[in-house]
Specification:
single chain; 141 residues; alpha+beta; six-stranded antiparallel beta sheet; 3 helices; 6 strands; 20% helix; 42% strand
Length: 141
């Protein structure tokens, strides 16, 4: 019989009592909701992807569809969009857009990568509009 040192046992007991964080909880922390688009779907920010330069901010946003979109060849469960926001100009460009055939965002059903992105004012209620509203807010002091 092996005896476990007392310094290990309390941490082990605490881990059992508290349980392990669920995958959903960790995703929620990594992907906070920053708004909703006009169809009512939530817009989540992938916080690790946010990159700021003096000219623009780039970030990837996820939109899990509350109801899968029926398309030729199946259903889409959500999208990921890479946007570039120029706050001082009030313009946004979509650099990449992917639609997913599963709720876990692992099976890409459709992909579009823009070679030369065009910057314009975002359409109200769109993913780029939500991105601009969130990313261009003045930093809290």
């Amino acid at each position: 019989m092996r005896i476990v040192p007392a310094v290990v046992l309390p941490g082990f007991v605490a881990a059992l009592a508290l349980g392990t964080p669920s995958r959903l909880a960790s995703q929620t922390a990594s992907f906070p909701q920053i708004g909703t688009i006009s169809g009512g779907n939530p817009v989540l920010l992938e916080t690790r992807t946010v990159k700021r330069t003096p000219q623009e901010i780039t970030a990837t946003l996820r939109v899990p569809f509350t109801k899968p979109a029926k398309v030729a060849g199946g259903e889409w469960f959500g999208s990921r969009t890479l946007v570039a926001v120029r706050c001082t100009e009030g313009t946004v460009a979509v650099k990449e857009n992917r639609y997913y055939a599963d709720a876990k965002f692992t099976k890409v059903a459709n992909e579009k990568i823009v070679k030369i992105p065009g910057y314009a004012a975002p359409v109200p209620g769109s993913v780029p509009a939500v991105a601009m509203a969130h990313l261009c807010k003045p930093a809290a002091r």
